[in-house]
Amino acid sequence: PNISKSRSVFIYFAYASHQVSSMGDRETSNHSETTDFILIGFRVRYELHLLLFLIFLLVYVMILLGNVGMMAIIMTDPRLNTPMYFFLGNLSFVDLFYSSVIAPKAMSNFWSESKSISFAGCVAQFFLFALFLVTEGFLLAAMAYDRFIAICNPLLYSVQMSARLCTQLVAGSYFFGCVSSVLLTSMTFTLSFCASRAIDHFYCDIRPLQRLSCSDLFVQRMVSFILSIIIMLPTIIVIIVSYMYIVSTVLKIRSTEGRKKAFSTCSSHLGVVSVLYGAVFFMYLTPDRIPELSKVASLCYSLVTPMLNPLIYSLRNKDVKEALKKLLEKKNAIL
Prior knowledge:
The structure is a single chain. It is built from eleven helices and three strands. The chain is mostly helical. The chain has one domain (37-334): Rhopdopsin 7-helix transmembrane proteins, CATH 1.20.1070.10. Helix 2 crosses helix 11 and helix 4 (119-152) runs parallel beside helix 8 (218-251). The protein is globular and about 65 Å long. The N and C termini lie far apart (102 Å).
């Protein structure tokens, strides 16, 4: 009887131990999904951190000055109260905010020992960056359509590009950006992150996060790919078709001066489209085994593009240059 009782006690403690161990494993698993991440950033010597910090700081200051300045010029000059500049003002707003999602955290990590970002912070950064980046793609498509109407149907421009349509196009851009971001974020952060917590990037992006997951990524990658096609294909088609019609119309203009003037209204937009889509394609065509190259490509469209956009439009656009000159003269007169 004593042996039987001892055996029962042993079995009971073994079972209890197994239950406690299982609970601990579940807690560890849950903790791995909600704990902080570490943003590795650029793999360079510590001595170069100051140089990189100063470069990031300079670029971010130029982004702030350029995009805030562009919005101020558009809002204060009544001559720029047109559909083209309405879209450009929203483009500057988007550039300002999606770079602000990335740059401050990246700069602070140059001086941080832990380089950590909370799970909630990573989710928020991923969501906002995806939202503004997708919104920018749709805004650029709307701007291409605007240039198509302005050059191919100039007499009907004010009728077709009404204030209501422009507002709907901008609102639609934000709506599709939000829907896309919700889908991408929910798919990415429902993965199980049971590997290392170290994200080999300077912000929370989809490919570095996928590398940390031990979930089956086939379905997630297929859905992400299909979603990317649904997001990018319509915007690219609108831009390409618009410019096909624009080029066809401009080539029919007999005077060289007329052609030059028509092309000059599109050159800034075409430059911005080339920089953004070139960087995005380079980023996603870069092999996953070369993360440092992916970081450089990400740097181009997350910080360099928002810095270049206001410069491209201010240097290539006569109306913006005149409005800026007028604003500076007014400021000097007040001083």
